[in-house]
Amino acid sequence: AFKQTLKLETWPVGHFLVDLPVGAQVEFTQGYWGAGNDVRIIPCPLFKAKKVVDERVAELQGTKHLEGGTLLERVVESKTLPNTWILFYWKGRTYKGKVLEVDAYHWKESPESKDPFAGNAYLICFNRGSHTDEIAMKQDQAELEDLFRRVRIRDTRKIPTAPGFCVENGFFPGDEPGGSITITVRLPDHPDIFLRLEIGTSNEATVNGGTLLDRCGRNDKDPMFASLGMKKLRFRQREVGPLAGEENCEMVKEHGIWDMSFKWEYRGLVDNASHPFIALDLVSKRPKDSPKPLSLKEEEFLVLWDAIVDSIRLRPTTSTPTQPGK
Q1: CB pairs under 8 A, 24+ apart, for 92-95?
Q2: What does pTM read for this prediction?
Q3: Angle at CA 166, nearest 5°, toward 118 and 103?
Q4: What is the pLDDT of residue 229?
Q5: Strand partners of residue 165
């Protein structure tokens, strides 16, 4: 039997932990309730943070709106939270409706920062929507400022003990649902292997929609795939701790070349931070018609897959997260 030979190390992702190969290159896409779907926390000295904001303001002011004025509707510099700028603007040039886009920025120093070029400081960037009436804009400003006060700077690899949602370079305290995060992982020693982990809040659609096995079963019957060679390795229910998920692992042969496509999915429970929607993919990708064999054999691919899937677990904290049915 093949054994897992790649050394793994633990990464905190959202409310969870996952083990990834040492040396993995990890890219993050992340969002949080109230902050929008594009949360970025960037090592940044103050002068550069101000330059980022000034350039964004100039870009929006420099674009004319067809109904008059420019894309920029308002710039607010917080009077209660230093180094905080909130930009309200129109998303497009053709129509001014009742919905605005918001880019919000906050610069803060952190004793935990280890970036030698940023002066122990980060620029936190949120992007969300708002409405055009004054009450809504002021309420949204207050919500954004509150989030900026709450978010903590954190080394991406550091595992917190307090309840909260881990993102790249940061941490939102609390055990409530509302965060979403996707990591894309590349392995330098295996450039043909890619991993993607998605964690997001479950809703009625994800919980009650089609399952992974339903979708893969329909695809297997699609005539479009009839010309492809296929080897089904696994098609089953697979529990990972308390997470009752589903697994589909297959090899697909096209133009005489075999590639791997492994998937595990857990649909989660509605609005439960301990039971979010989780999807894990491990796939092989090579240049089209490349005759070069995969850097991992079928058995090696499987043992790496099992090691990563089985490592997914809720991050232990100093308080007990909400459990299903309680």
Answers
A1: 93/63, 93/64, 93/65, 93/66, 94/66, 94/67, 95/67
A2: 0.90
A3: 60
A4: 80
A5: 172
